[in-house]
Amino acid sequence: MHRLVSRFVELRPGEYRRTALLFLYFFLVVASFYILKPVRNALFLDALGAAKLPYVYLGTTALVALAMPLYTRAAATLSPQRLAAYGMGLSVLCILAFRWALGLGSTGVAAGFYIWVNLFSSVAIFQFWYLANVAFNAREAKRLFGFISSGGILGGAVGSAFTRWASLSLGTDALLTLSVVPLVACVIIATRLRV
Question: 71 pLDDT band (50/70/90 cuts)?
């Protein structure tokens, strides 16, 4: 694997593990989002229709405004790895809670899920770049961030393809449950990352 990666990027001693873990972390975060996004859209449009979209955009803005100070406070007290692991673990719990609540048939849950997925995407991407910036100095970043970022591109393609296949074969409910698998893997990666 090291030789294959070395064809695309110049890896120096001590960089392979961090590079591979962050590539995989970004791949998994983006793949999970590309599973959640169509589920979010389908559930919301089915429950509330497109006319209500402006309200969830406002709700997203409000939730981000409330969540970011809490995230900043947590970042000041936790290591980047723990912050990422706790963040992904909390995301897993939220998805499972929404999976259960959506079974109750409330239209408010579909709106809440839409808002939460928007928050998740913002925080998860921010969290990835925070980890990456702590893991590498400026010279390493110039060499490696292009390759590491390609993990997100690949994650988007794989997540989309998986979602297309799984939605036809398994249905929306199963997709929601399956979206936690990459995030559990992110928790494990964050605990193994040494920065």
Answer: confident
Joined together, the tokens standing for residue 86 give: 């706790």
What digits encode the pLDDT tens for the residues 91-140?
999 999 999 998 887 888 999 999 999 999 989 999 999 999 999 999 99
Whole-number Å distance between alpha carbons of 22 and 129 = 9
Burial track 88-114 (b if 16+ CB lie within 10 A, e otherwise) = beebbebbeebbeebeeeeeebbbbbb
Residue 122: name the closest of 57, 181, 77, 52 by CA. 57
- Residues 50-62 have pLDDT tens digits of 888 899 999 899 9
* Cβ partners under 8 Å of residue 158, min gap 6: 27, 31, 34
Spatial distance between the Cα atoms of 32 and 134, rounded to a whole number of angstroms: 23
Asked whether 185 and 89 are in contact (CB, 8 A), the reply is no
Which residues, 6+ apart, have CB-to-CB distance to 146 below 8 Å?
9
Helices and strands (DSSP H and E) totals, the chain: 8, 0
Spatial neighbors of 62 by CB under 8 A, at least 6 apart, are none
Using alpha carbons, select from 53, 45, 26, 31 the residue that is nearest to residue 150.
26
For the entire predicted model, the pTM comes to 0.90
Q: Look up residue 141 and give its amino acid.
A: A
